[in-house]
Amino acid sequence: MKLRKLNHLPSGRDEWLIPKEALISVAILETFNPESRLLIECGVLNGAYTLNILKNVLGSTAIGIDPFPNMSKLKARMLARMSGLKFDLLDSWNELNLSKQKASLIHIDGLHTEDAVYNDLVKATIHLHEGGVIVCDDYCQSIFPGVAIGYSKFILNFEYIPFLCTGSKAYICETRYHQSWLTRCTEALSMQSIIPWARHLGEGEDTPYVSMPLIKGYPTLLSWDYARASSTSDLLPVWPEQPPTNLIQLKD
After folding, report:
1. Strand partners, 221
2. Tell me: the pLDDT tens digits for 73-115?
3. I want to staple 172 with a disulfide (CB 3.0 to 4.6 A). Which of 1, 53, 134, 158 is the partner?
């Protein structure tokens, strides 16, 4: 796993994406062979996450799952942005081919309710490639408590565990691949200085007491602060100014 400068950057509001999530997601998918670089995204909306993958990862393909209820204009705009890319859009998980469509990276950002998040995560396990990664968005956002409950219930009930937790996404794998992903991610983050990260709160400081972030006995890396572009950085020399996201974008 190696973090690198992205060839494609967001162009504005329609492709709003936090820089470190874009960098990390690309690095994860690039660890797989080109023929295995399939992304499944549940909850596509404007298509920012999928565009980041398709325009940056060589050989990548993507399947979006999103019925776009009563949002025909938003759907049309998203599909226009995907023009010429290897992208298919489905209404539901049930339309996926169980035997052929195994994704190395699955991004869960659909309906933000407890039941929907839990069910989406469970369905993701069925379509995950061997050693693949599931990314759960908004798993700790205070305005979406249902996501936190659905995510937590999934982690408690299945043999899956996060190896990296950021302020907006949890990066999850099967427990048997946890050490491998933890090592890869640690090495990748250690080779750069743009993305802030730590093994535990207060690492490197004179902190009198800290608790290691263990989940079901497994350690997880932490990256809470923003990564900011710097003209002196080879990894992230520039990132377009983008407005904060808000719920208005959900209107058609």
Report:
1. 164
2. 999 999 999 999 999 999 999 999 866 779 999 999 999 999 9
3. 134
From the list 75, 53, 55, the residue with the least C-alpha distance to 65 is 75
Three-class SS of 79-139: HHHCCCCCEEEECCHHHCCCCCCCEEEEEECCCCCHHHHHHHHHHHHHCEEEEEEEEEECC
Our CA angle for 53, 59, 77, nearest 5°, is 45
Distance CA 64, CA 165 (A): 24
> Which alpha helices (DSSP H) does 15-144 contain, by range?
19-29, 48-56, 72-81, 114-126
Give tens-digit pLDDT for 172-230.
Answer: 999 999 999 999 999 999 999 999 998 877 666 666 556 778 899 999 999 988 888 99
- Say if pTM beats, i.e. exceeds, 0.70: yes
248-to-139, 142, 143, 176, 214 alpha-carbon distances in Å: 20, 18, 15, 41, 36
The domain segmentation of the chain, as residue ranges, is 13-250
Select from 163, 165, 152 the least CA-distant residue to 121: 152
